[in-house]
């Protein structure tokens, strides 16, 4: 065989799997259909969206908060072209970083579309239509996902767009209609609302980010509303039309009455689907279920020996760090190690401001399972650090087992929640009790003190500062 392992797809799952396999001494190849490595996350996902979230937040603070801090400036103006150019620069820097890592680890990179000829042979079709075949002892499918689009949405990439186009707009929409108030809707809706667009969310469920703990959705909605946004909940979109300069969204409203919303752009973000198009999985007999590759729960091997799958293309949360953990796991399994992923402790983060971050079980899940639990909450407005910075929106909510005090879930909305959640993940990884966190010294004044105070509230209802 030419290679010990070949990875198809260079997203955070694929390139991390390739590096770990190479570290373990495997002769490794990676195939990517685009010219650049890094997948959805680096090129049209995590990184560019965070670059625009950061830029739009700087603008919003300059326009709305500098004066209260005693900083007087002329009314700032948005230069969207520069914001997008900066975002491209950020992505390019990281593309170069991955190229460097491939070279450093002696991983052979093939740019082209990979498909199975048989279980050990992969055909690579290049941009110039030429083809090459490589052979490999083992294969990892890491082909990721694409946005879900329904036919009645008339996706035209111009006015009816997905996250991919929303990261490259040439003008700020006057009125952006966002279909789906999930993670992408909340993040990219925030970007354009901060830059001055009117933003209207149309959501099928009864709250924003409906899969997270309900308290988070309720609190996030209050903060996002301050940007002048509107919401239609319990509303099912039935048609989206581009009438030239105008986009019209038709839906069945909460009270059963028809709803019609007019705007100039419509961002469709109703979830993503696993991407297995063109892989020719039939040739090798890899089993799929509703478009996802089916894998063994522990080894992530498919039903075909030697073929594994990781990341968005398999079951579970569609998150970059989940894909990375699975990439490492598969490389180690191939080398006889016995790694394990605790899927309950994969944190979820929404990079709005305030940020939302969550790990473990939600209150709704605990109720549904009949687990006996207790809750401790602490608001950011009672924190010295939050008062000093002016970031007083939000709270920390800790759910602990009523009998044993073991922490079962931590849900944070507030400044820097994305970084704060790491403490909760670590504590839960070591099966900490709420009292363990409550008795751990937290530096003052920090946002992290809210975690200690919420743990005090959960332990024995004895927070100090509320
Ligand atoms: P992908 O990153 O999708 O990579 C798959 C790669 O495979 C692609 O490069 C594709 O071109 C390639 N490919 C597919 N088929 C073939 C083939 N046949 N031959 C060769 N190459 C092929 N997650 C987070 O954790 N944090 C975030 O902040 C975050 N923000 C996001 C923001 C947006 C707007 C979006 C859309 C997603 C975001 N995500 C975020 C989700 C994250 O991007 C995905 O979970 C992650 O990229 C999945 O990694 P992956 O390796 O499974 O697949
Ligand atoms: P999502 O699942 O987070 O949200 C989709 C929303 O659309 C849901 O709230 C759903 O109720 C709603 N919806 C579905 N059909 C609808 C309809 N017909 N009309 C109205 N509303 C409808 O999906 P997403 O926001 O598209 O994001 C896709 C994936 O990308 C997510 O799984 C997420 O994990 C990942 N992502 C992660 C991050 C992050 O980690 N910060 C950021 C962006 C994306």
Automatic annotation (TrEMBL):
<feature type="domain" description="FAD/NAD(P)-binding">
    <location>
        <begin position="3"/>
        <end position="327"/>
    </location>
</feature>
<dbReference type="InterPro" id="IPR050151">
    <property type="entry name" value="Class-I_Pyr_Nuc-Dis_Oxidored"/>
</dbReference>
<dbReference type="InterPro" id="IPR016156">
    <property type="entry name" value="FAD/NAD-linked_Rdtase_dimer_sf"/>
</dbReference>
<dbReference type="InterPro" id="IPR001100">
    <property type="entry name" value="Pyr_nuc-diS_OxRdtase"/>
</dbReference>
<dbReference type="GO" id="GO:0004148">
    <property type="term" value="F:dihydrolipoyl dehydrogenase (NADH) activity"/>
</dbReference>
<feature type="domain" description="Pyridine nucleotide-disulphide oxidoreductase dimerisation">
    <location>
        <begin position="346"/>
        <end position="455"/>
    </location>
</feature>
<dbReference type="Pfam" id="PF07992">
    <property type="entry name" value="Pyr_redox_2"/>
</dbReference>
<keyword id="KW-0560">Oxidoreductase</keyword>
<keyword id="KW-0520">NAD</keyword>
<keyword id="KW-0285">Flavoprotein</keyword>
<keyword id="KW-0676">Redox-active center</keyword>
<comment type="similarity">
    <text>Belongs to the class-I pyridine nucleotide-disulfide oxidoreductase family.</text>
</comment>
<dbReference type="InterPro" id="IPR023753">
    <property type="entry name" value="FAD/NAD-binding_dom"/>
</dbReference>
<keyword id="KW-0274">FAD</keyword>
<dbReference type="Pfam" id="PF02852">
    <property type="entry name" value="Pyr_redox_dim"/>
</dbReference>
<dbReference type="InterPro" id="IPR012999">
    <property type="entry name" value="Pyr_OxRdtase_I_AS"/>
</dbReference>
<protein>
    <recommendedName>
        <fullName>Dihydrolipoyl dehydrogenase</fullName>
        <ecNumber>1.8.1.4</ecNumber>
    </recommendedName>
</protein>
<dbReference type="InterPro" id="IPR006258">
    <property type="entry name" value="Lipoamide_DH"/>
</dbReference>
<dbReference type="InterPro" id="IPR036188">
    <property type="entry name" value="FAD/NAD-bd_sf"/>
</dbReference>
<dbReference type="InterPro" id="IPR004099">
    <property type="entry name" value="Pyr_nucl-diS_OxRdtase_dimer"/>
</dbReference>
<keyword id="KW-1015">Disulfide bond</keyword>
């Amino acid at each position: 065989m030419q290679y010990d392992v070949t990875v198809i797809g260079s997203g955070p799952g694929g390139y991390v799997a390739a590096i770990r396999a190479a570290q373990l001494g495997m002769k490794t190849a990676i195939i990517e259909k685009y010219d650049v490595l890094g997948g959805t996350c680096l090129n049209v996902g995590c990184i560019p969206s965070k670059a625009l979230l950061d830029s739009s937040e700087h603008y919003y603070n300059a326009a709305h908060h500098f004066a209260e801090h005693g900083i007087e400036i002329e009314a700032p103006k948005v230069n969207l072209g520069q914001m997008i150019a900066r975002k491209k620069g950020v992505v390019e820097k990281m593309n170069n970083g991955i190229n460097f890592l491939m070279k450093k680890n002696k991983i052979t990179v093939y740019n082209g579309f990979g498909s199975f000829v048989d279980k050990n042979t992969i055909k690579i079709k290049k941009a110039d239509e030429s083809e090459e075949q490589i052979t490999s002892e083992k294969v990892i499918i890491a082909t990721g996902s694409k946005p879900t689009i329904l036919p009645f949405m008339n996706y035209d990439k111009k006015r009816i767009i997905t996250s991919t186009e929303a990261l490259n707009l040439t003008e700020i929409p006057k009125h952006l209609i966002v279909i789906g108030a999930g993670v992408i809707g909340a993040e990219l809706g925030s970007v354009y609302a901060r830059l001055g667009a009117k933003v209207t969310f149309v959501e099928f469920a009864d709250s924003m980010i409906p899969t997270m703990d309900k308290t988070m959705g309720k609190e996030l909605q209050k903060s996002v509303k301050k940007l002048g946004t509107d919401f239609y909940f319990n509303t099912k979109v039935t048609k989206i039309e581009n009438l030239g300069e105008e986009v019209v969204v038709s839906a069945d409203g909460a009270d059963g009455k028809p709803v019609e919303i007019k705007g100039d752009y419509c961002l469709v973000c109703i979830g993503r689907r696993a991407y297995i198009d063109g892989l020719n999985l039939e040739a090798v007999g890899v089993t799929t279920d509703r478009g996802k590759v089916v894998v063994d729960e522990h080894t992530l091997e498919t039903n075909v020996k030697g073929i594994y799958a990781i990341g968005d293309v398999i079951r579970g949360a569609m998150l970059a760090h989940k894909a990375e953990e699975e990439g490492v796991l598969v490389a180690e399994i191939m080398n006889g190690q016995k790694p394990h992923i605790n899927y309950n402790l994969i944190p979820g983060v929404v990079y709005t401001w305030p940020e939302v971050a969550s790990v473990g079980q939600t209150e709704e899940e605990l109720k549904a399972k009949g687990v006996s639990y207790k809750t401790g909450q602490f608001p950011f407005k009672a924190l010295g650090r939050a008062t000093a910075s002016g970031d007083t929106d939000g709270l920390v909510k800790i759910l602990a087992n009523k009998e044993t005090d073991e922490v079962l879930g931590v849900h944070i909305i507030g400044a820097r929640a994305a970084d704060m959640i790491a403490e909760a993940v670590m504590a839960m990884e070591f099966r900490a009790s709420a009292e363990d966190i409550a008795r751990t010294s937290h530096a003052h004044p920090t946002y992290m003190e809210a975690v200690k105070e919420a743990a005090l509230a959960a332990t024995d209802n004895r927070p100090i500062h509320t």
